[in-house]
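## Example record

The block below lists the input lines for one assembly entry, exactly as stored, with component labels intact.
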Amino acid sequence: MVRGGENVFLTARAYIAKRRRRRRRGLYTALIATTGLALAGGTYAVLGVASAGAKAAARPLIVWIDTSRVPYEKAYMKANPHANIKWVLYNGNENGTGVLQSKFALWNRTGWPSDAPDVMFDSQNYDAVQLGTAPYSDLLNLKSYVPKKVLSGFAGTSMSSCTTPSGQIICLRNDSAAEVLWVNPTLYKQFFGSAPIPTTWSAFLADGTALNNAHPGYLIGSVGDGFSIDDYFLWANECPLDQVIGKGKIEINPNSPNCTGIMNAMDASGDVGKSLSDASIFSVNPQKIVMAVGALWEGTAVFQTGAAGGVPNGTMVAYPAPVATNGAKVTGDLGGGLWLVSKHAPNPKAAAAFAQYMATSPNIQKVGVDAGLPQYVADQPKYLTSLDTVFGDPSVTEASWKSAAASVWNGWSPVPWSTDGVWASTNLAAVTGGATMASQLLPYAEALANQARLAGYTVKSPVSAVTNP
Amino acid sequence: MTIPSATVAPGERMSVRLGRRAAGDRGRAPAGSSRTAGYVFVSFYVVLLLALGVAPAIYAIALALSTPGGVGFAHFVDTFNFFEFAPAFEHVFEFEGIWLVSQTFFVVTLALMVHTLARRVSTAFRFIFYLPGAMAGAASAIVWLFMFTPSGSPFAFILNAFHYQVLSNTVAPGNLPIIFAIMAFFTGAGGWIVIMYGALNNIPQELIEAAEIDGSNAFQTALRIKLPLIRKWIVYMLVLSFAAGSQLFVEPQILGVATNGQVPAQWSPNQLAYYLAFQLDRFNDAAAVSVDLLVIGLIVAALLVWRGKLFEVD
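Predicted structure tokens for the full assembly:
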């Protein structure tokens, strides 16, 4: 009995120990299995989605937009309520934050996930060429997807920022951010009577000098931002500091009279730091701006049209930007969105068709003032009439907008670095600290050349300090 | 046996026995289990260290050394020749010079002062010193951005004394190292003061009393007795701060975005590496810059540990 009991006990102990071992082994097996599943999970999920997409067309078109484009989404879904689209909000790559660059760079190493976007809205002009050429080369060449007739329907040379040096079409322009001369006619009449609105830079700067003396505190613009000098003054005067002349080749010539002319004129006028404010154009009192060269969208954004502290609706009138110092009727550009299509989209045809629809359909492009003037010419009239209550003198404003969108100088090329950012980090503090504009051309050109070399470009320049770091 | 065996199922009896046995185990083996516990605790760290510290470092070294032609130093040479390379390291060393000197001086001085105060007052002071440290790097960058804007800053009178009228005056390239040093000081100093205070509390009371009996005043006690005894902690602070400072990233990155690019995207070496990898898709070059940082960090840490006799037991 006792012996048997011992026996039973012993066997039971052995049994328990065995069970424990087994349980532990079971636990290990379970652990290994779970880890394995987790590791395999990625692949499994990808396969699952892909095959489901092939069978039932269940994979939605994935579209990334910024918050300003939400009215587009609403308009699209209203027109196509059953569309199988997954809309994802992101920051639109604003201010060169490089969201797309970092995601693409990672995905190019790890493989593109199934939820990568097919179509993206991008608020940065220079992004397309960077993402569409080596080492990225992640954008679909739209040349064979979008009809030629549509491609030629975009204003002026605007599609040049969507064209790679080798001729691929890697984006579609959404809205224009060309520059005009924004004038507050009430203030202008008050200070200059019936004098004509300036059409040249010298007349524009002379008005600023007059304000410095007679009405200090009133402004003709600002030099207090990274973008103000290079976009408003250098680009618009055909200054060749950012001219891509071939694949991976850029020409930077700070000695061109197109650059020195306007800079010397600014210095001579004495306006910098006075009627051309040292503060950012977005932080000055909009009711003190008599006129300012600025992008189309600045008509509402800078002057706070209709808002408390801003100018009343129906005040601001757009005139053509001053004629370049060399006589060319060109202007600069600040922003304007792009539609990009991923080369990795499982259904490139559908993705390209969608991007084309968004960029060109009047259903989309007429939506909202804030979305900007459609770059697609056929959509412009309907959009422009929606601004009649916002701006004054509609016929003048509409004509100026249209001509501006078609006259952006295409010699300021899209490049993988931000020229605005380079001015901000290299020259802005010097200018707001009192340095002359003319003295800033060489350091700016050198800094641009360094950025170009960092990005793998060869720099051509008559100035040796620019060619050699 | 008083209990009839028939009434006790084998299982029950077993559980009683096992329970007793388990209780015995628990009581018997503190030495063994504490060693096991030690291994368990360390193993968590070792796993994390291997996965998140060693493995990425090896991956970076492999990436940096792999060139189209095989193994070589081409990426190191390339990145060294970038115009942005030398200035990035200059910026960071300038920043570290200002920051480490001021942090060491103020942290040690304030900790010694707080330690001589009455306990209740010193608690309040330690709390006040620690407060700014509660703000992480990103948040403090935003707060400091506001402080540096002449039109909105409560310290506008100081900025105006330097003739700074707009933000772009304050955030001039020459001012950036000192701006980031100020940010880093207020983020980190409070925590270090608390740690130094803890180190000072470890000094045996008898030692300090003996010094006082020998006629040492508070100033002499602080300088001659307390300071040498917390030297290792100061070295420890320098090692960690140098490593953290050489990897400066968040503050310049956020200030750059907030000022639309006034801080260049390649201001610090870590930013340069990030820019190379995630803006230009050049991971090998980015890895080379990261390895440079690693090597510098290791050399400086080794020097400080060796010269500061950090691991020597008294």
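Residues 1-55 of chain A have pLDDT under 50 and may be disordered. The CA atoms of residues 184 and 290 of chain A lie 5 Å apart.
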